[in-house]
Specification:
By secondary structure, this protein is α/β, with parallel strands linked by helices. The protein has two domains: 9-235 and 437-459, Aldehyde Dehydrogenase, Chain A, domain 1, CATH 3.40.605.10; 239-426, Aldehyde Dehydrogenase, Chain A, domain 2, CATH 3.40.309. Helix content is 42%, strand content 21%. It is built from 15 helices and 20 strands. It has helices at 28-45, 50-66, 68-79, 83-107, 141-152, 166-179, 193-201, 214-227, 249-261, 278-293, 313-328, 360-363, 379-387, 402-411, 444-449; strands at 9-12, 19-23, 111-113, 119-126, 129-133, 156-160, 186-188, 205-211, 230-234, 239-243, 271-277, 332-335, 350-353, 370-376, 391-392, 394-398, 416-419, 434-435, 438-439, 452-459. The protein has a seven-stranded mixed β-sheet, with helices on both faces. Strands 7-6-5-8-9-19 form a six-stranded mixed β-sheet, sandwiched between helices. It has a three-stranded antiparallel β-sheet with strand order 3-4-20, with no helix packed on it. α4 runs parallel beside α5 and α9 (249-261) crosses α10 (278-293).
């Protein structure tokens, strides 16, 4: 069989299907230069005083705010996020840089360890150049929430972005350079998936981080294991949104709608499975469907738009197949359920009810504007349904009983539990999952130290 040359990286406007830009794959000499430049950047950056690293991050935050509208509009054009949500992503990313500039140095301070003989400290040393394989749904925040903690620690990044958001990746690279980081501290690698394995094997790559699908994570983890290189995986989820019978129904409905349909439902930590205790199920469902039906669907550049197009046509087609499979398995369609005819990757906001654990909508991740509602007989049943998943990223729980909420949180099999508020990522708290949602953590001090060598230095041990 003849070899088939893969298509180049291509940015396509999801609103109308028009091609925005194409970037030919990096040649081998370009890849080699990126690796060497990144290595030299690490040699310089790891020796840069922490205070200077922090001030460079402050400068990066200033550049993000200076070009905030440019980046927000680029996010809209490349992946379809509604403009106000895109602006929120940009501002959140600027605050991330500022937070780590302020708090990062303390997280990297030597920790005294009490020993009987001599003196000992645990020091956090950077590992080197990290290969970061990143998705398209948060083309700025997703990159920086991993890169910024790594950079403050003295590491550098080689970013392999999703091909559809290359424009965003190159703008981030330009900011990094202008902010005063060493040349190559954040390189952008534009290669086809089959080239990534060879890059991982390069001795200058110290570790790998990936956010993506379970299959991609399994491939990267297998390769990293064979190479004896550390990796961190964030593989999405099918997050439960539990509503118990004593919950504030107005607040729960509002949070469920926002948590499910923000970014057109294309969020790994979004509320996807609504698990409602039986006494509230009928009224919750009625209010939820009514609220979803009022969401403004339209041009993502318009200020009033809440739901835009999905990022890619193939993702829309996959989502529609999951909806159709769920209906064939016995789910009830309360709203939407179809692709929108015409140009662009539009899908109707959709609500499925009567969803049981055997159905596609319960077992698989629905990465788009589709919610699945299941009824629990009581709190214990709700907990069992929530944990009945291969994923374990986040969970939301609405109840007035804080003692019960805390007991349930201890038993929820996930990386984050959010009580009376939908899931979110924030630099002050760790983010990551268990089970097939991956392993390792981003953000907080965990994100800073994830790619550090915790080195013991024991002085004068006689």
């Amino acid at each position: 069989m003849a070899n088939v040359t893969p298509l180049p990286a291509r940015s396509v406007n999801p609103t109308n299907g028009e091609i925005l830009n194409e970037w030919p794959w990096d040649s081998q000499p370009v890849i080699s230069q990126l690796l060497e430049t990144g290595h030299q950047a690490f040699v310089e950056w790891q020796q840069t005083p922490l205070a200077q690293r922090a001030s460079t991050l402050q400068r990066l935050a200033q550049l993000i705010r200076r070009d905030s509208e440019k980046m927000a509009r680029l996010i809209v054009m490349e992946m379809g996020k509604p403009i106000n949500q895109a602006r929120g992503e940009v501002e959140k990313s600027a605050r991330l840089c500022e937070w780590y500039a302020q708090h990062g140095p303390a997280m990297l301070a030597d920790e005294p360890a009490p020993v009987e003989q001599g003196e000992a400290v645990i020091a956090y040393r950077p590992l080197g150049m990290l290969l970061a394989i990143m998705p398209w749904n948060f083309p700025l925040w997703q990159v920086l929430r991993g890169a910024v903690p790594a950079l403050i620690a003295g590491n550098v990044w080689l970013l392999k972005p999703a091909p559809s958001v290359m424009g965003c990746a190159y703008l981030i690279r330009d900011w990094i350079t202008e902010a005063g980081f060493p040349a190559g501290a954040l390189g952008v690698l534009n290669v086809a998936p089959d080239v990534v394995s060879a890059v991982m094997a390069d001795e200058r790559i110290a570790a790998i981080t990936l956010t993506g699908s379970v299959s991609a994570g399994a491939a990267v983890a297998s390769r990293a294991g064979a190479l004896v290189k550390k990796c961190v995986l964030e593989l999405g989820g099918s997050d439960p949104f539990i509503v118990l019978k004593d919950a504030d129904l107005d607040e729960a409905v509002q949070a469920a709608v926002t948590g499910r349909y923000q970014n057109t439902g294309q969020v790994c930590a979004a509320a996807k499975r609504m698990i409602v205790e039986k006494p509230l199920a009928t009224e919750f469902t009625r209010r939820f469907v009514a609220a979803v039906s009022k969401l403004n669907v339209g041009d993502p550049m318009a200020e009033e738009t809440w739901i835009g197009p999905m990022a890619r046509a193939d993702l829309r087609d996959e989502l529609h197949q999951q909806v159709q499979a769920s209906l064939a398995e016995g789910a009830s369609l309360l709203l939407g359920g179809n692709k929108v005819p015409g140009p662009g990757n539009w899908y109707q906001p959709t609500v499925l009810a009567d969803v049981t654990p055997t159905m596609t909508a319960f077992r698989q991740e629905l990465f788009g504007p589709v919610a699945a509602i299941s009824v629990a007989q009581d709190a214990e049943h709700a907990l069992a349904l929530a944990n009945d998943s291969d994923f374990g990223l986040c969970a939301t729980l609405y109840t007035a009983d804080m003692a019960l909420a805390n007991r349930m949180a201890q038993r929820l099999q996930c990386g984050g539990v959010f009580i009376n508020g939908y899931s979110a990522s924030d630099p002050r708290v760790a983010f990551g999952g268990v089970k097939k949602s991956g392993f390792g953590r981003e953000l907080s001090h965990f994100g800073v130290r994830e790619f550090c060598n915790a080195q013991t230095v024991w002085l004068d041990r006689k």
